[in-house]
Amino acid sequence: SAKKTHRGHVALHNAAIQNAYLNKIKLKDKLKAALKSNLLTVYYQPIVDVQRRKIVKFEALVRWFDDEQGMISPGTFIPIAEEFGLIHLIGQFVLEKACQDLKEMHLHGYEDVSISINRSVNEFKTSNDQFKLVTQAISSAEVPFDKVTLEVTESMATNRYTWELLSKLREQGVKIALDDFCTGYSSLSHLIENQVDYLKIDKSFVDSLMADKNKKVMINCLLNLADELGIKVIAEGVESQSQLAMLEQLGCNHIQGFYYSPAQPLSASLRLLQEFNSGQVFNDELIYISK
Ligand code: C2E
Ligand code: MG
Ligand code: MG
Ligand code: MG
Hints:
Elements: H1 2-36, E1 40-49, E2 54-66, E3 70-72, H2 74-83, H3 87-107, E4 114-118, H4 122-125, H5 129-141, E5 148-153, H6 154-157, H7 160-171, E6 175-181, H8 188-194, E7 198-201, H9 203-209, H10 213-229, E8 232-235, H11 241-250, E9 254-256, H12 266-276
Parallel strand pairs: 2-4, 4-5, 5-6, 6-7, 7-8, 8-9
Antiparallel strand pairs: 1-2, 1-9, 2-3
Helix pairs in contact: 3-5, 5-7
The structure holds ligand C2E and magnesium ion (MG) (3 copies).
One magnesium ion (MG) is lined by residues 180, 202-203, 236.
Protein name: Diguanylate cyclase
Domain EAL: 24-277
């Protein structure tokens, strides 16, 4: 009967939810174990100042290599870490490692290079340890405060407490980037009120730029506004020469994406600096040099 079919459908639906939940719990336990056994590491993706033809910054991106599953994407495990209260552990690990690795880059002679570190909303929610944790990590790595950027998303911008904390860090010299800008609902008032140093245009927007005239108009306005406000704009997820050319033409000078390089370990990043920033590889052609 219809009733029976309906009941069967509900049962199937419940089973699917239960299954998803169990998988989540499994992954959470695995993540806990991985954190204990130091299976997480940090990779670095260069951000290039196109005009100056230099890597000016690296974004620190957490990596988890699992024996069975291979690389598990942060897009998968960061939300789980947030849900189950593990994000503080990951955040602290990445923060310390990134600051230490930045020191390493500076010791190799690339003292102008800075690091950009992602922060999750839950890391700022409750206490003001964040101020202490961030300033301590930077101090103990002995890198200048103004060479460290924290990337936050717009959803965090609605929390007044978070912004108080960020502005306290900013007073110490730490830079703030608004990540994933132009996804969903973007508010210009965040930019004007909250005083950020960088704006990161999300890959999805970069992807739509070529085909959509209105998006070009919009990004043009945004670049002008950012310029007026003294904010630097970084385009994320740039994969092709034509995207790069378009962004350059629009006046977006800071580029991050596979066109240049994916995120790589510190050793490879140091090699990248050596080749790229010394001008050896860089002639008129912009070259993909990650290999
Ligand atoms: P995000 O902060 O927006 O980082 C940029 C993401 O885009 C990275 O993915 C990067 O590998 C990817 N990407 C960069 N250029 C290209 C490109 O040209 N093509 C394509 N297809 N992708 C590109 P990833 O490393 O998988 O990280 C995903 C997200 O996970 C990050 O997005 C960030 O929200 C979060 N995440 C990563 N590491 C951390 C961390 O240490 N802490 C926190 N809280 N979140 C992190
Ligand atoms: Mg980011
Ligand atoms: Mg981003
Ligand atoms: Mg993004």
